[in-house]
């Protein structure tokens, strides 16, 4: 029994991405980031798209794949403390709708950035590297895997 806990979930991190309006808020946030970058006078359109893609993927990597634990007190005896947010999402079940959304969204942003940069080699390498850094940790084969012991504790 959790006295003073206002939520009914054992770990609210598991269901937060399925909450009502979350995907729309996420898309609007990415759109607002792009508009802010476009409004900076000395950024060209290709630079704004590449920066949108790189900043988005950097934020996604940090918040979904690097930060571990939960800000909530959970009665799971410390199991969530060792998992990233991506590993906690939907209780670790693979191929749910929210996992598919957060896998497809950087791919769509990558296609947009590549198209608007006209496949310039410099921008293409930056965008591809940025995309791979967020897609590879999402693979089901890497669930709970710590390469070279990085982020083990």
TrEMBL record:
Main location: membrane
Keyword Membrane: yes
Keywords of this entry: Membrane, Transmembrane, Transmembrane helix
GO cellular component: endoplasmic reticulum membrane
Transmembrane region(s): 23-43, 101-119
InterPro entries given in the database record: ORMDL (IPR007203)
Signal peptide start and end residues: none
Top-level lineage group: Eukaryota
Keyword Membrane set for record: yes
Topology in the lipid bilayer: Multi-pass membrane protein
Localization in the cell: Membrane
Annotated family: Belongs to the ORM family.
Quaternary structure note: Ceramide-sensitive subunit of the serine palmitoyltransferase (SPT) complex, which is also composed of SPTLC1, SPTLC2/3 and SPTSSA/B.
PANTHER family tied to this protein: ORMDL PROTEINS (PTHR12665)
Job of this protein: Plays an essential role in the homeostatic regulation of sphingolipid de novo biosynthesis by modulating the activity of the serine palmitoyltransferase (SPT) in response to ceramide levels. When complexed to SPT, the binding of ceramides to its N-terminus stabilizes a conformation that block SPT substrate entry, hence preventing SPT catalytic activity. Through this mechanism, maintains ceramide levels at sufficient concentrations for the production of complex sphingolipids, but which prevents the accumulation of ceramides to levels that trigger apoptosis.
Name by which UniProt lists this protein: ORML1 protein
Source organism of the structure: Fregata magnificens (Magnificent frigatebird)
Gene name of this polypeptide: Ormdl1
